[in-house]
Structure formats: C-alpha cells, structure tokens
Predict the structure.
Amino acid sequence: MKNIKQSWAEPYKIKMVELLKMTTPAQRKKAMQEAGYNTFLLKSEDVYIDLLTDSGTSAMSDRQWAGMMMGDEAYAGSRNFYHLEAVVKEVYGYKYLIPTHQGRGAENILSKILIKKGDIIPGNMYFTTTRLHQELAGGKFEDIIIDEAHDPENEFPFKGNIDLNKLEKLIKKHGANKIPYVSMATSVNMAGGQPISIKNLKELRVLTKKHGIKVIHDMTRVAENAYFIQQKEKGYQNKTIKAIVKEICSLTDGATMSAKKDALVNIGGFLAVNDWDVFEEARNMVVVYEGLHTYGGLAGRDMEAMAIGIGESVSDDHIKARVGQVIYLGEKMMAYNVPIVKPIGGHGIFVDAKKFLPHIKQEQFPAQTLAAEIYLDAGVRTMERGVVSAGRKANGKNYFPKLELVRFTIPRRVYTQAHMDVIAESAARVYERRNTIKGMKMIYEPKYLRFFQAKFEKL
Ligand code: PLI
C-alpha cells in the first residue's frame, strides 16, 4: 500500500453554482477585437473560465455568507470592526488595525506616512500598485529580490527571498536615513507567486534592526507563502499554517493587506501596524481617503466576511487543496511542454511568453499577444504580466522586465479539476500553433497602470 499516492481534495462541498456562458470562436474573435486585445477590457459575460485574477474572485463559505447577514451598519464603532480587529491581532499578531476598501487604499496611506521625497524603498520585486504609490509619495523603488527570481527556469524553492547584499549596498550608497522601510511581499506576485523563507526573513530582521529600518509586509498572500515554508523549509514540517503565518508577521513591523486574495472576500483590505505613532497618523489619514477608522470604506458586513475568511484562510486543509489545485494545473501544462515559471507558485501558473513565442520581440508584447490567443482558443481569460504591466519609468522610457509572463490565476474554491484539464488542453493547443502567431502594437496608452486599459492592434 506504500506506493499509493494520497491526493489532495477540497475540504468543502458545493451548495450553489453559477451558470457560465459558452461562446463560439466567432463570438470570441469579435469580443477580443472590441476589447482592443486587452483581456481586462473583455466583458465577463464573454468569458468561460476566468483566470484574470485571484483578487476578489474567491467563493465565500456558507459561514461567511451568514456573517454578511450579521453586518452592523452603524457609521461608527460597528461590532464587525471590533471582531475584525480581534481576528487580525489573534491570527497575524499586529497590534493596530486600519480597515481600507482594498489593498491599494492601505498602500496609499502607508506610503504617504512613511515616505519622504527622495527616499529609496527596497523591495522583493515590484508590484504595480505598490510601486506606484511609493513613487507618487516621492520615493524610488529598488528591486532587491535574489537574481534567481528573474529566471523562470531556476528551481530554487524560495525565489521570493531578498538579496541582503543588494540591500546592504543600497544602505551604504544612500544611508539608512533615506530608507524608511523595506517593502517585503510574501508570495511574490510578479515573480510567479514565489515564497520567501523564514530564514531569509530572520536575516532581514537582523540587518534592518541594526540600521533602524522598518520592514513592511505586503501580506496579500501570506498563507500561501506559509504553505511552501511548511512543505520545503527545514524545521517547519510539523508546524501549522497558522503558526507559520504568525511567525512571518512577527518578523515585520506592519503590513498592507488586500483581503481579496488570501482572506477569501470579494472586497476589503487593511493596514496593520505595531507602532502607535504610525497608527495614529494612519487613523487621521484614513478619514480623508477611505472613511471613518472603524470602517475604512467597507460595509460592516464586508468586515464580518473578512474576519471569518481570515480564519478559514489559515486552515491547513484549505491551503493544501488551494495550492494543490494550482500545482495540478502546472504539472498538466508541463506534461504538454508548455513553458512555465518554476517552481510552481501559490496562486497561479505563469507561462513564459518569451519562451512560448520566441519570434516575437518584447517591444511587440509577446505576453499580451499570448493572453489574447489563449482567450480566442477556448474562452479562458488570463492576464499579461510583462512589459505592459511594468509601465514606464519617471523619464518616460519603458521598463523592460526580464520576466514576460501570462498569468493563469486560480480563484480560490471556484473551479474544478475538470476546468483545470480544459485550461491545460487549451494552452497546449495554442502552443502547437505558436509559430503562426504574430505580435501587436499599442494604439492607446493610459497614464497610470496602463495594463488595465491599454488597447492593441495585431501586426
Ligand atoms: O487590488 P488591491 O488594491 O486590493 O491590492 C493591491 C495588491 C497589492 N499587493 C499585491 C501583492 C497584489 O497582488 C495586489 C493586487 N493584485 C491584483 C489585483 C492581482 O490581480 O494580482
């Protein structure tokens, strides 16, 4: 019996379903043209399997829906706020909580408080909204992730790690007083959902403490990161996800959270800090940008669903099935020789568009092109994470990131294994006809976060 593998399976059963529309190739062609070859501009109705993002797209549990009915919609002092505050303290360990409408609301407030003009913000790879808020506050982002993260083939298990030599060089060059904090993300999104190790975090804590620099944690996908620590880091096999999540947070000074991912809600986020002074300023500022400090742009029911979702997100059974499904899809794609970022990350499969379409130059948007082709094949919606997402530098020049990827992001508790089969087969079909695919040119470019609204034309 020893050789029979033990499969993961969902720790839930289905109580309600949402019917999907199936489309024809002609319908998809028309929809894609109208969307300017940007999957963000497709109507959701025209999508069969939606892997655009795992953000706000998860299925809530019956308990969360029950919590929605317990919303206390008082303008001030809602009981759901106090519940959320207690859960954040208990599960993550941060002392003070400011709810926000979503992650970028927290990033805005935090950046405005901590960053002065001319400051340097080192981080383990940029995220679009995070870097933009740092720049809008007058700071400059510097990437200090380890080199392995920029290589889709490198199988190092903790490609989210920070290169402490790069950080030390920045401190030497600019002085610690120019570095208000290190922006550290768990499950580094743009690298392919790659985790950071506890060992690296502990070393980061020692170095930053020595120089009086804070560590601010983008904890959007912290539970998924904890799963990889449990599976791959020495000494963590017998620890629970809950214990690992708390240990990660204990090595940082505060966090911004988009609860739309890990925490299994459709809307919501927060800023959480241990420092009273930062909290006090944030409490002043949240009133200007989000709403009173006991609701931060959310309804009471949203805060209740978030409080319950946070508890569910750190269950070992939940996270094993969640990441298990992502790994299932990735292994299936690899079996079809579709080039993907390795190791497989926590929230989706990232297809290497440079390898998939080597004949298309980065100036002609290979990942944007591939995302459009994937949709045309079977109605699966994915997202570009390459030169379009990277945007332009302050001097107007394009960033040309090493990674040119298409993200197949898996919403939590939404799709089945059969959906994963359909997705992998569709990617394999497009891969078979890859030599016939041509690049694109951009015909409309918005000023900020251009990937959301840019339009393209086929060459
Ligand atoms: O979309 P928001 O404003 O709730 O959160 C912004 C945000 C911050 N950090 C990280 C790591 C994110 O992944 C993130 C949002 N991500 C989106 C929308 C995504 O599709 O990945």
Summary: The CA atoms of residues 64 and 308 lie 6 Å apart. The two ends are 57 Å apart (CA to CA). The chain has a mean pLDDT of 97.
